Amino acid sequence: MIDENKLVDRFLQYVSFDTQSDEEQDALLPSTPGQIVFARALAEELKGLGLADVSLDDHGYVMATLPASAGISGTVTGFISHMDTSPDASGEDVKPLRVRNYDGGDVLLNRDKGIVFSVKDFPEIRKYRGQDILFTDGTTLLGADDKAGVAAIVTAMEHFLDHPEILHGTLRVGFTPDEETGRSASGFDVAKFGADFAYTVDGGELGGLEYENFNADNPVVTFHGRSVHTGSAKGKMKNALAMAAEWQQALPAGEKPEYTEGYEGFFHVYKITGDVETCRMHMLVRDHDQKRFGERKVFLDRLADFLNEKYGIGSVELEHHDVYYNMAEKIRDGHMAVVDLAREAMEAVGVTPVVEPIRGGTDGAQLSWRGLPCPNLFTGGANFHGRFEYLPIPSLVKACETVVEIGKRGYRI
């Protein structure tokens, strides 16, 4: 049995570290100093628990080994979680609120500020009625993404150390910076990690098992205008903001995140800055299917050509930035046993696997393309990246139990 109190206390300790990453600091890895502070504390904790080969590099990547039980040989299983929290909401001075025996109704998160977690807004929480749930105070995110994963992995390793009678193969653990900014996997040393396969513990609600994700392009579109005094602008002014608006209006109206689900891809404009002279637009292009992904990029190429023809060559510059690809292409190519192992482990601890495509990406997507098959496991959390994030404690316990069960079975693959 996993020690629930120890697991929860560890998670609460982890979220006390402010590890919010910063998309603007793209020349730094990690992008924020708080991540290094947490990485150092985590490395010292792993040493104190008795793990071997504990390492911390200059960029904040933490790795360690739990050696195999005596007489056990076979494949090496890895578990990976990220230490940073999303730039989308503050991770400073997190004040978790534990609601015991949740009654299924609204939750007052912050009396002073009048912040309420509304069941009308998040009706799916009703399925956790009767459970203890961790919320925020409504002013920060909680940090379950992904400190719940970190806590589950570390507690699982401690469980093996406390119970040497539980046989297991060699287990490697890795904790990474800047997953939320998309730069974590690029600095991850796969050879040094040395696992035959791994799992990111970075998913959402109970039972989540994911080995399909989006193909991802993050285009940047720059519109070049010409500013002229409005009193004499006729026939002379070329408004970069108006071109950006025309670009946005040309995107398929129904193919946006707010209108799509499952395997449906989308175009998404998430940031625009500029003025009449110059305007820059940041986008996301996503699709699970490689062919449709390519077609989406061609659509943007043709749109840029059209606007350049209309407003003059050089008016629109389009840069594609492929970030990651669908890991399913690599995992289906001879590595489905890794997925089957996760299914079996979940079922062994009483969890029904929920296999769905990720409408996003994980470190495992890039790592799978770099030769380390790496599906994603649930952490139990929900409403990530915002003030209404929450974590049912029984789900976190099951995440930890799943890691243990995989650790017991992994060497047999």
Automatic annotation (TrEMBL):
Binds 2 Zn(2+) ions per subunit. It catalyses: Release of the N-terminal residue from a tripeptide. One of its GO terms (cellular component) is cytosol. It comes from Acidaminococcus fermentans. Residues 212-312 form the Peptidase M20 dimerisation domain. PANTHER family: PEPTIDASE T (PTHR42994). Transmembrane segments: none annotated. NCBIfam families: peptidase-T, PRK05469.1, PRK13381.1. This is Peptidase T. PROSITE patterns: ARGE_DAPE_CPG2_2.
